[in-house]
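Quick board copy: two proteins, each given as sequence then tokens.
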Amino acid sequence: MNAKQELRNELINISKEVSEILWAAIGNKNKIFKLNPEYTPKELEEFIENLNFEYDNGYGGQELYGIIAFNDNTWFDRYEYDGSESWDYHKFPTFENSLKEISDEYNYL
């Protein structure tokens, strides 16, 4: 898997404005990349270009770690399960959504 292409695909899919990125590559790269909140479009492109390398996203240990924060307080982080890794999208729960989930699950309210 190419780390640069994977990140680009995820950013296109979510189509939200990035506020900050911290990406750490381990394995044979042992590099840490950080994009500060006041980045320019050129800095974002340079940051993404640093990720132009292949890694094994199949069976084995996690090779890449990272957090991508968005301006709407949602975020991606790296997810690994059974040797396969990818990005996992998160958002803070809201009271209304939590109440609806409880209501739907237990047929309350």
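And the next:
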Amino acid sequence: MRRLFTIAPLALAGIIASAHAAAKPEPEPPPPNTDEPLATPEPTPPSAADSTKPVLPMAPPGIEPLPGAPTDPTTNEADKRIGVGIDALFLFPIGGFARDTGPLAGPLLRFGYRVIPTVELAMRAGYVFGTGTEQGSGALAKFDILPVWLEARWLILDPFYGPYLDLAGGMNIFVPTITPPIAGAAGDTITKIRQRGGVSAGAGYILSPSFPIDIRVQALLPNLIGEDTKLNDKRYVAVAASAGYTFQF
């Protein structure tokens, strides 16, 4: 009996310890370490469609691009808007103008500025030499002309090539000559230098960016303003053709 009383308390203590251990909650796992750097995805290279930077055409190997052409790597439309060029002008008088002078030809210098990529304002000036035409008296008469024109050009498709339209107006200084010269007041009147205002309209074409030869034709009224009845002025009409080359800066 004494042994029974000794074992019973020990068994009861074991049962209580087992119950207490079962009721104790499991320890929670430690929190994640936030000090470790997060992995960053590799950047994706932009595609050609996403690029907003214009790609300039490249000149063929071994060939230097012409100044101002799109193949010139230094060309930037936002910065290079100035055009400096030279034209060879051929002027053909019509009607009464053809009776006072023969065809004319000469050089013109041109200075232009593109206010927007396809619209250019320019000045053309030079000296056009006339050829003599025979008068009823057997004398030869001619005009040389010093044109100073202001013009506006609309380059329809592209600022470096293609078709364009132009309107111009300005001063034409007529320098008459008669051979043999006429002496006295009559000769002085005939050879008096005349300043007249005129207008013109035309169209042209720039051949290509790599070969920017500029060809144009114009219809002119060279003495529309400033007619002098004492000099028996007539209303002149002419057609002009020119070819030129322009450097872009």
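Board note added afterward: The chain has three helices and ten strands.
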